[in-house]
Amino acid sequence: MSEGSLWSITEFFEMTEFYQGFLLSVLCSLKSGKTKCIFSVSFILVFALLFIIVSVSYFTPAIYCRYGKYCVDSFSCKEYAENSDTLKECLDSEECLGNYELKPYIQKYNRIRSITAPNFLPDTADIQASDDLIRVDEVSKVFPTKRYKNEGTEQEALTAVQMAIKMKNVQKFDKAVKLFQHALALQPLHPDILNHYGEFLEEKENDIIKADHLYVRALTVSPEHSRALVNRKRTLPVVDELDEQELERIDRKRIELIQLNHNNPSLKRVKKEIYFQHIYHTVAIEGNTMSLAETRMVVETRMSVPGKSVMEHNEILGLESALRYINKTLVNKEIVSVYDILAIHKRVLGHVDPIEAGSFRQNQVFVGEHIPPLASDVAYLMEEFVEWLQSDGMLRLHPVKQAALAHYKLVYIHPFVDGNGRTARLLMNLILMRNGYPPVIIRKQDRSMYYNAIQLANEGDVRPFIRFIAHCTECTLNVYLHAQEYGAKCLMALEQPKKQDYNDIIPL
């Protein structure tokens, strides 16, 4: 029993002796007359009532502390015990909630209120072995990356642009495109070249999205570029409308998928096949050399594949463990905390590196041309990150935008030594699954496009990355919707290689 809230046994007996002595004195006074007797009986009743109230107020907390989890002293923040407001803040803190969940989780699915969000992961029993198969001199300060190294002089690049404009005027568009690309190769970040090429794409190629992106890059290098400002003001509303049309089309497909009969054996088989595809592509992006068939065998049988490293086996097992954890625990949780992100990472990396799994990095890391924040800032940035996830501005965005931005920001912070990409993609899919979307597959064939979109976001324009995630979301929805119609060919589409340029931007 704790001090200040419960009586000790000695105090209890002392109080009991006091009441016994008082009762005897009252009984003795009864002999003195009726008036005094009535007065004494009244006192007996009053003190008996007080005794009951005091006993209940002191002994009831003891019962709760003994048989429940709501004793104030059981929490780690005893200094707030005398202040109800600060005590509530303490009980709501992550330190207390780590041991006691006082708030029920509310399933977050308010987009389609009349329909229950389906489970897009196959049941555990279904996963078993089977036979089924600015100024130019300031450019380097803006983008300190090797990919934008100048290969020629400014005069050479501008001459190529003038020749490209002449080719455009005489209707020789193929030559104009090659000259513009040559000029960009000579001076990749010259604002005039970016603006002229954007005007050509907008006017002759009708590629508004790529043109708008080039205007943004020109303005990033030279914020006061007058022609780029005018062009950007014209293209921005058009691009926003195209983006909204894409998201509306994705929403219609999501509703169509939710309304399907998810108890259909054919759809259950599709979920199972896509589940293996998801694990295979997610680890393959990070360099895992397991084939789809080998990945499936590891997941189904837990047997080793000859010639493959232990680490590759553990990457697959860790990703499946994290995916199961998200589906069973976090999908129906209203708020994602730092602890939840650490729990995801602990499962992703737990089989590969148990020491680093579930903990923030303690040293500086370098990711290609991106230098993440200092290790000393990671904990603070992650606290800000989870607050941002629950902010009003974030929650008002379309779920696909929420998922893409959460993915990008986590990768930018790069809070872990390893496993950042897998954790970010799992967090992205958690947000999508909470809103009725299936886990999105980013194909390993699209790795260069995926990394290029992240690089473009690092350079100031995050919209290409959002469009890339929207494109992957729609492709995944198409696989679910049409797999029953086209059979194995639709699933094989995830394996078909696609030729792509390093600087590709996903069009709508």
Would you give an account of this structure?
- Keywords: ATP-binding, Membrane, Nucleotide-binding, Nucleotidyltransferase, Repeat, TPR repeat, Transferase, Transmembrane, Transmembrane helix.
- It catalyses: 3-O-(5'-adenylyl)-L-threonyl-[protein] + H2O = L-threonyl-[protein] + AMP + H(+); L-tyrosyl-[protein] + ATP = O-(5'-adenylyl)-L-tyrosyl-[protein] + diphosphate; L-threonyl-[protein] + ATP = 3-O-(5'-adenylyl)-L-threonyl-[protein] + diphosphate.
- The record marks 286 as: Important for autoinhibition of adenylyltransferase activity.
- The active site is at 414.
- The chain has helices at 9-29, 34-67, 84-91, 94-97, 139-142, 154-169, 173-186, 191-205, 208-221, 226-258, 265-285, 292-301, 310-330, 338-349, 378-389, 392-395, 399-413, 420-434, 447-458, 463-486, 488-492.
- It is an all-alpha fold.
- The N and C termini lie far apart (66 Å).
Give, in order, the helices and strands.
HHHHHHHHHHHHHHHHHHHHH
Secondary-structure class: mainly alpha
Shape: globular
> Helicity level, as a percent range?
55-70%
Quick recap of the structure?
The protein is mostly helical. The chain has 21 helices and no strands. Helix content is 62%, strand content 0%.
What's the helix and strand layout?
Blueprint: H1 9-29, H2 34-67, H3 84-91, H4 94-97, H5 139-142, H6 154-169, H7 173-186, H8 191-205, H9 208-221, H10 226-258, H11 265-285, H12 292-301, H13 310-330, H14 338-349, H15 378-389, H16 392-395, H17 399-413, H18 420-434, H19 447-458, H20 463-486, H21 488-492
